[in-house]
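Quick one: structure for this chain?
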Amino acid sequence: MSLIGPGEVVPAGELGRVHFIAIGGAGMSGIARIMLRRGIAVSGSDARDSALLRQLGDLGARVFVGHDAAHVGDADTVVVSTAIRESNPELVAARERGLRVLHRSAALAALMAGRRAVAIAGTHGKTTTTSMLTVALQHAGADPSYCIGGQLVTTGLGADEGTGDVFVAEADESDGSFLMYSPHVAVVTNVEADHLDNYGGFDMVKQNFARFVERIEPGGTLVAGADDPVAVGLAEHARARGLDVRTYGEAAGADLRVTGFTPRGLGSRFDIEGVGEVRLGVPGRHNALNATAAVAVAQALDLDAEAVRAGLAGFGGAMRRLERKGTAGGVEVFDSYAHHPTELTADLEATRDYLGEKAAAGGPAGRIVAVFQPHLYSRTRFFATGFGAALGLADVAVVLDVYGAREDPEPGVTGALVADAVPEGTRAVYAPVRDEVPAVVADLARPGDVVITLGAGDVTQLGPPILERLSAS
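Got it. Here's what it folds into:
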């Protein structure tokens, strides 16, 4: 899979009629929604029907289930993601007809043009930081346009057109497509080895983040995580280029330093030196850092600090980011998109804090039952040991087989690699048959426990059947 590099941005008004291949995905549907709100004619296809597909149809898009060359119709521009193969019949038709074919990042860049663009990048925390910032800016009266890689719990939307001049976008580094953007403000939360199937090694990951920082417009701002060594290096690089730089984190030298982090149920309170106390309704130290990044961006945009803090206090979370799915049989069930060892660690530590608080208040000594589905064969091969170590923070780890997504199976690469890497002290169960997992979890869980489904694949669909089996137990 080739990496997407910088390219010419076509103004949105020149795209004509736009057809999306795989329009039902979170990122593609968001871009399509904003185009529809701007009066651009949109059509699109997806392999299966979905609520997002139907929503776009209600907004005026022509949508199709299944892929067929005829679906391209009278489109002038065709938008694809990296996951679309050249053999897709709609893409083949577009190439044969000489239509403009844009990667989704180029389509998003077209929508961002002419706005004060804020691009949120980093290995971890992009979606939540983008979501927090969007809600905070809305509360402060900025009414931004936004495109997030997930959906806000409060509205169910991951993208929309606002009336203000700010455009907030999650910037995906996985395929290099964040190099399409030239933001006024950029955030780099942290930089770790990931997407090595594309990059080949960590050095190339770091080089691409440096190129991303170099694309910040003159006079713009970089907001960088002060607790991450690579982000700190990028901050130095940005200063040398004459950019405004604001660092945040728990490190002593951070411009916006986080202190006094205290878990409070499924939320927390903490202080930002020079700003004041911040309260959140979502758990975890990592979310305190994400919120502080949002505060730093708001400062760079000269927005009211009190309104921003109030907006963060009312932030209801993003879907699939430790999202509470329900309770049955005394067991709480949550869902998370975590699919990297660092992300699993952050979510499991936040859950451990939550259970500790409940126990201190006289509740049962609950356990963590982690239900993890590895995502991509390449990522499983690279990080199986790290996944196992992270799952050691749970009391019970149920490991599904690999969700291959765009990749073909690799001999010997299965979920068993992860289950075998879980350390002693945590019960590890390898459950390769997905449909049997709800029954397995219901047998393992007991009142007071927390079950978390973790992963970027279809593990997210297991919450309701797990709750159903728990109710019947």
